[in-house]
Amino acid sequence: MSLSYELLGSDGAARRGRITTAHGTIETPAFMPVGTAGTVKAMMPQSVAETGAEIVLGNTFHLMLRPGAERVAALGGLHKFMNWPGPILTDSGGFQVMSLKELRKLDPDGVTFRSPVDGSQHRLTPERSIEIQHLLDADITMSFDECTSWPVEEPEAAFSMRLSMKWAERGKRAFAARPGYGLFGIVQGSIFPALRAESTKALTSIGFEGYAIGGLAVGEGQEAMFRVLDETTSMLPADRPRYLMGVGRPADIVGAVKRGIDMFDCVMPTRAGRTAQAFTRRGELNLRNARHRDDPRPIDERCACPACTHHSRAYLHHLIRSEEILGAMLLTWHNLHYYQDVMRGLRGAIESHSLGPWIAGFESEQGLGDIPPL
């Protein structure tokens, strides 16, 4: 059988579940650290696992360019190549290709583009994207789609969505079903309810092991994103996982879980870690700021990551101002650990039917801000 999803409990629309794949299980709601090119930046694979992450994300577009999907396959697949034994989801490459703009040419069959690395010409079709993800040995393969741009008028969004639905059908035919592996379809349609409904109906008619919601967190704002989720999640099959692509800040994730989303990914915690930003229970900190240079406290006194248990804000500030690599490593580790703490908290709250109070506490703490040193 393909990968499976088990619904373990619920609290309102929020779901507590478990996904079983060829390379292990994923407790949901889950956050997937982004390992675009076969590495979660500034982290060792075992360090990623120590944060509590059970699945990471790789990317078709970047891995097909370097080092090449066929090379990864010859070396034993992406799990072995990057020394990550757990589940892997691979993004189809659609978002990256569409962001190339002047370097790409779109047609009904697929996309031709020039590599931003060396200028060489490449072509991605729904079938080739599925083939690459198969070569990488992804547990969860994503349908090749056109990620609708923002801002966008409804006719343009409709054309883009319908093209993605045709590609989804082709990708489903190309996907090789095997035990523990699955293919997810991607709901498109921007902020337009009728288009989201049409897309959802098309994908559920084709039939997938899971369903993603794409085309959000591209500039439409949180209120519009939550409105789309309210309108869309209820139309998706209850017995399949739901994945909100590219989201986001902790408050975005909490709000989306409340609306029935199971899986998330975002570069934000790792990118922030490389730019001196730390996520905490009281909001975000910029460790580059001079006010931290004499502060002996940890980033977050309730965090069990190495940055918080072994180092002061003053030391982290010093590393960052000195441009030492260790600063980026420790802050990245902290951010990923914090994100996993949020997911652990959400899972526990759903299990105990206390999600409402948990969210109220989360929002209250976030609103307090950081307490300055004495």
List the helices and strands and how they pair.
Elements: E1 4-11, E2 14-21, E3 24-28, E4 30-32, H1 45-50, E5 56-59, H2 60-65, H3 69-74, H4 78-82, E6 88-91, H5 94-98, E7 104-107, E8 110-114, E9 121-124, H6 126-136, E10 140-142, H7 154-174, E11 182-187, H8 193-206, E12 210-213, H9 222-232, E13 242-244, H10 250-258, E14 263-265, H11 268-273, E15 277-280, E16 283-286, H12 306-310, H13 313-321, H14 325-351, H15 355-368
Helix pairs in contact: 6-7, 7-8, 13-14, 14-15
Structure description:
The protein has 374 residues and is an alpha/beta fold. The chain contains 15 helices and 16 strands. The chain has helices at residues 45-50, 60-65, 69-74, 78-82, 94-98, 126-136, 154-174, 193-206, 222-232, 250-258, 268-273, 306-310, 313-321, 325-351, 355-368; strands spanning 4-11, 14-21, 24-28, 30-32, 56-59, 88-91, 104-107, 110-114, 121-124, 140-142, 182-187, 210-213, 242-244, 263-265, 277-280, 283-286. The chain has an eight-stranded parallel sheet. A three-stranded antiparallel sheet has the order 1-2-3. A three-stranded antiparallel sheet has the order 7-8-9. The model has no long low-confidence stretch (mean pLDDT 96).
